[in-house]
Design brief:
The chain is α+β, with helices and mostly antiparallel strands. It starts with a helix and ends with a strand. 21% of the residues lie in helices and 19% in strands.
Length: 108
């Protein structure tokens, strides 16, 4: 019998008995920063480029018309990227983009 009492005491000391365990209160949760529901839209100022007219003609062939026209969104140079917002036509609400290398333009 002394062995049984010794085993029970050892189990209780080592944490085997559930009546000796108390649940510790949980630590308070750290505050979470709430992100904006919609990311901010960066506006690019409109700049004409040497191939703006060419890109506007390409956009019109695809059904994209209206707005300010094709604006340069990269720095002027041998390779330029143009963007045109379609406000009329079958591409209404979309964006037409083109990449021009040495004034040879292709739709992106």
């Amino acid at each position: 019998m002394s062995r049984l009492a010794l085993i029970c005491a050892a189990v209780a000391v080592l944490g085997g008995c559930s009546m000796f365990h108390r649940q510790m209160p949980a630590a308070p949760a750290a505050p979470v920063a709430v992100a904006d529901p919609a990311p901010a839209v960066e506006t690019i100022p409109f700049r004409m480029g040497v191939s703006s007219a060419t890109v506007e003609k390409m956009a019109k062939q695809q059904g994209c018309t209206g707005g300010q026209g094709a604006g340069l969104i990269t720095e002027p140079g041998p390779v330029e990227v143009y963007r045109m917002r379609c406000e009329d036509g079958q591409m209404r609400g979309k964006v037409f983009m083109a990449r021009c290398e040495l004034r040879q333009c292709r739709q992106m």
